[in-house]
Amino acid sequence: MLQGKRILVTGGAGFIGSAVAHHLMLETGADVLVLDKLTYAGNLASLEALERHPRYRFAQGCICDAPRLAELFEIFDPDAVMHLAAESHVDRSIDGPADFITTNVVGTYTLLQATLAHWRQLPPARAKDFRFHHVSTDEVFGALGEEGLFTETTPYDPRSPYSASKASSDHLVSAWGHTYGLPVVISNCSNNYGPRQFPEKLIPLVIIKGLAGEPMPVYGEGRNVRDWLYVEDHARALALILERGRVGETYNIGGAAERRNIDVVTTLCAVLDDLAPQKTGPHRDLITFVRDRPGHDFRYAIDFSKLESELGWRPRESFESGIARTVAWYLDNRGWWEPLLQAHDAAARRGLATGGR
Ligand SMILES: NC(=O)c1ccc[n+]([C@@H]2O[C@H](COP(=O)([O-])OP(=O)(O)OC[C@H]3O[C@@H](n4cnc5c(N)ncnc54)[C@H](O)[C@@H]3O)[C@@H](O)[C@H]2O)c1
After folding, report:
1. 90 lines ligand 1 (CB under 6 A)
2. What is the pLDDT of residues 40-84, one digit of tens each?
3. In the annotation, is 162 catalytic?
4. Which of 28, 38, 183, 357 has a CA that sits 20 to 30 A from residue 6's CA?
């Protein structure tokens, strides 16, 4: 039962964190403190619906700031930490890896130390039930060929500065569990999509370009394969793992929806043709192939049978239903994303720094 638990959600003003905050507040009855630095990816508008709720609080702050963390742990006295704060965009990690090392590695270390200090002074019953849940990615496992799936025992083989920094943070979390006994759990998830995703990621980018009648960029020939998970299904999985996952375990989370990037884009075009037809012709005419990302992993696919058999979780949305809901959300919420385009040049192409393999 998460009802009445005090949960510190780092990165809660981001895409997945805001879905988690909504889920915890509206579906579980937990008390939530969102801690977020509000980088380009953090957006208070994503939390607007929760603002007046008596069980919800927000604090601006950086996970690298140890005194700020100590202060918030003291005030909020959490029963659990769900750690989602991160630099999360692979393309940005190629252009500028420094922030990824600072936030994802040093920040996770700093948060672990603050959590450990808090956990050590809890009374035994609360200390036993305490959880530190690290939200991570399947990208730590590297890339697959045409066949195979990532399982929880797949060796780590990160390829980008982003995935290397997430792999580092996973190892730190696991080490704090083994060395200090901190009750940790880690989840590794495939690509998310859905409402409130920053417009430079593939799915919102294509929707927004489509609505504007502008070229829709697709890397290489669009043959790279990702497994896609609707963000609210992810939030539900995370709450379940926090509540019932076994301490020290890792859980893979996937959408059972492997698609080539080009198929994702053509599905989006078909939904756009339905919901927002353009006079100049079908949206697929806007597809434009652009130079591939350096070191672009070919395929990710995830086996989530452990989560399914242990905790009974499966995604509720199919890829088609999730995409239709997502396009409808971006159509209905221009006021959320239009200011981001102006403020951050969010639809610009990133990640072209050369190198790679
Ligand atoms: N998006 C995906 O498809 C995906 C898939 C699997 C795992 N993940 C992981 O889930 C987590 C959330 O991803 P997302 O897509 O919501 O990311 P996001 O970029 O949308 O949000 C990240 C949030 O963290 C905040 N933040 C960044 N640096 C911070 C710092 N130093 N201190 C405090 N807050 C800081 C940002 O302001 C932002 O609100 C990340 O850890 C990511 O690695 C994402």
Report:
1. no
2. 999 999 999 999 999 999 999 999 999 999 999 999 999 999 999
3. yes
4. 38
Please say if 139 is a catalytic residue: yes
Q: How do the domains of the chain map onto residue ranges?
A: 6-195+228-256+299-317
| 102 CB near ligand 1 (under 6 Å) | no
Two tokens at 308?
């399914």
> Do residues 110 and 65 make contact, with C-beta atoms less than 8 angstroms apart?
yes
pLDDT digits (tens, 9 = 90+) for 242-266: 999 999 999 999 999 999 999 999 9
| CATH number belonging to domain 6-195+228-256+299-317 | 3.40.50.720
CB environment 280-317: b (16+ within 10 A), e (fewer): eeebeebbeeeebbebbbebbbbbbebbbeeeebebeb
Q: In what order do the strands lie in the sheet with 191-193?
A: 191-193, 225-230, 258-260
What is the pTM assigned to this prediction? 0.96
Q: Which residue, among 39, 44, 117, 48, has the nearest Cα to 85 in the 3D structure?
A: 39
Q: Which amino acid is at 14?
A: G
Q: Is 109 a catalytic residue?
A: no
Question: Which of 228, 156, 246, 143 has its CA nearest to residue 189?
Answer: 228
